[in-house]
Amino acid sequence: MIKKNFFNPKSIAVVGASRKKTKLGFTILKNILDYNYKGKVYPVNPKTKKILGRVCYANISQIPIKIDLAILVIPAKIAPIILEECGRKKVPNVIIISAGFKEIGGEGIVLEKKICEITKKYKINLLGPNCLGILDSVNNLNASFAEGMIEKGKVAFMSQSGAICTAMLDWAHLNDIGFSRFISLGNKAGITEIDLMKFFARDKETKVVLAYLEEISYGQEFLRVAKKLTKKKPLIIVKAGKTREGQAAISSHTGSLAGRDEGVVAAFRQTNTIRANSLGDLFNLIKVFNKGIILRNNRIGIVANAGGPSVMTTDAISESSLRLAKFTSKTIRKLRENLPITANIYNPVDVVGDAMADRYELAMETVLKDKNVDALIVLLTPQTVTEIEKTARAIINNSKKFNKKLIVSSFIGGKKVKPGIELLQKNNIAHFEFPEETVETLNMLYRYCKDRSKKEIFPQVKLLRSQKDFIKGIVAKNIRRRFKQIDFLESLKILKYYGIMTAEYYLVTSKQEVKKSSQKLGYPVAMKIISNNIIHKTEVGGVEINIKNDKEAVSAYESIISNVKKEYPKAIIDGVLIQPMIREGKEIIIGMKRDPQFGPLIMFGLGGIYVEVLKDVSFRVAPVAKEQAREIISEIKSFKLLRGIRGEKASDINSLVDLITKVSQLSLDIPEIKELDINPAFVLSKGQGYKVVDVRFII
Questions:
Q1: CATH 3.40.50.261 domain position(s) in the chain
Q2: How many CB atoms lie within 10 A of CB 61?
Q3: Which residue from 445, 411, 523 is spatially nearest to 285, judged by alpha carbons?
């Protein structure tokens, strides 16, 4: 928990302050003094008496008053010693600027462990190490070595990279974007993004939260905290490390473990966290979310002076969750009466190339008055008579007049449109270089606003005490015997306890039982070996399918036993399982793997080539709510096959929702299970449910 005086310290000590202008200790001290910080500032350096006109102390213990925040700009090796002094002085907050900790490995890891132990011992709020510091416009505090001060605003930003911080600051100055708080996280040895998210959720000075992260600490807590935060304020994150190469680079940068990107994608979707795929995306999103306007519906109006950009924007809208607004007859009539005969009066409105500012203004006002329009995109290309700056002012005027509706702009060009763009930015109008960026950003805003009001329902299966004891016993037995895989029949029993439907089966151990059981099930049937020693049954010849009669059944049984004994002579064979061949329905796969950051990661997809070749799968992090289960199903590219095409019956999607939520609960209930694989299962037509054919639990 971040203490109240972390962002609002009444007194600051800069340990390692310097008189040399090339040193960070000088820059940080000067930054604190230059931007009208109201608290007391104490430089600490045993080698000098005064710095920048301030009395310098030999150590922090000599400062006569209580210190709220200590900033350490010292060699990493002496950081533990100075931190101990801060602890004895009862300093509640410390920022370690210095590098040379876990990001360098070896001795650096040992040093970071030491400072973590000291902060825990004295209950110190620690930011860093290896960070830029903090900037706070609320309290006029620049406690960093960044050049310049942030403008006042309602956006909070945190970053695990100091370089990204400086790039963001430079961009913000260029685009007139202000911040409430600006924090460099560094190695996150103390304060993490989760601590800051909790603070920002209750911070009245912050309306939007941005982050650049290379790893996410404590995944399950992130899920809980992010869900609460995004109900109140947008959370936009650039999460680096999508690829293996990127993850390796992260490890060398901050010593962090990036984790699997599938887990990140799933966690962000479930918490309504907006993922910016690049810094460009992040910058664009700030422009729109900084406005603080809620986009409750997706009906977009377009006003432009050229056909090409209008068509491009229309195409982009058609491929998004947005829709072109359908104007009322009143709007169409007014546009027809006031625009040239060559103009297009339907959406998108084309005011044609000779449009001056007054024609733009009339079109914008008319469209914005329409009850069917939720947001307006204004496009401009520089023609001979185009009044660029006057048109920009018309946009600004309409933005003030219709302050409940969002107006965004794209002045397409370069030198000629630059004065208009600068005018728009100074007046907080979101401007985009290209129409496609405009639509993509609006689409993200709409999806955030729509999902913010979603309610989550988590169905729960209540197990009997005897069932829980059985599962515990099975898990304990396998761990004791060092078996990696739970017995197949015991696995089926666990599924049954959770109300998961399985295909009918018989376990046989003789040729006589083979005939009898196959006849009961009805041909055709399938057979597979049951042995705790064999995980991949097909690879050892332990599976036979499409068996049509008694003769084939006996032959298949003998073949399976012979193959397994040849490949695994010491394998303990429990028998051969017989199941009916399921001819109807569609093959599906459901899996679970424990993500190092987020815990159980649930996977869904169609079976066969869809998963093996096309990798057409979707993910969510447990616990999975009913609506999230429905989303994971609809997200796969082959979803249309489940809905039914070319006269086929629709699959029982409701039963799949039930199956996914049960697998999610099972994964949380039995933490010893590292992997779960239901493959294949078959979903039947609507109202008929599904049947699990094979399951594997790895512990």
A1: 150-290, 299-451
A2: 11
A3: 445
> Does pLDDT of 470 surpass 80?
yes
CATH number of 299-451: 3.40.50.261
Q: Rounded CA gap, 144 and 139, in Å?
A: 14
Give SS3 for 418: helix
Tell me if residue 655 falls in helix, strand or coil. helix
CA neighbor of 408 nearest in space, from 384, 383, 443: 443
**DSSP string for 218-266:** SHHHHHHHHHHHHHHS-EEEEE---SHHHHHHHHHHHS-----HHHHHH
Does the reported pTM lie above 0.85?
yes
Packing angle between helix 550-567 and helix 511-521, nearest 10 degrees? 130
Architecture of domain 150-290: 3-Layer(aba) Sandwich (3.40)
CATH of region 1-131: 3.40.50.720
For residue 368, the one-letter residue type is L
549 vs 95: CA distance, rounded Å? 76
Residues of the chain with CATH 3.30.1490.20: 504-581
> Rounded to an integer, what distance in angstroms lies between the CA atom of residue 218 and that of residue 77?
28
Domain covering 586-698, topology = D-amino Acid Aminotransferase; Chain A, domain 1 (3.30.470)
Structural Rg of the chain based on CA atoms: 32
Task: State whether the Cα torsion 136-400-441-194 is positive or negative.
Answer: positive
CB 126 within 8 A of CB 96: yes
Which of these, 544, 562, 540, 551, lies nearest to 511 by C-alpha position? 551
Bond from prior residue into 680 cis (ω within 30 degrees of 0): yes
Q: Which fold has domain 504-581?
A: Dna Ligase; domain 1 (3.30.1490)
Nearest alpha carbon to residue 303 among 337, 346, 338: 346
Crossing angle between the packed helical segments 418-426 and 388-401, to the nearest 10 degrees: 20
Answer whether 333's CB lies under 8 Å from 341's CB.
Answer: no
Tell me the C-alpha distance between 256 and 669, whole Å.
29
pLDDT per residue as tens digits for the range 254-293: 444 434 788 999 999 999 999 998 888 998 999 999 888 8
To which H or E segment does residue 308 belong? helix 307-318
Quick: pLDDT tens for 323-366: 999 999 999 999 999 999 999 999 999 999 999 999 999 999 99
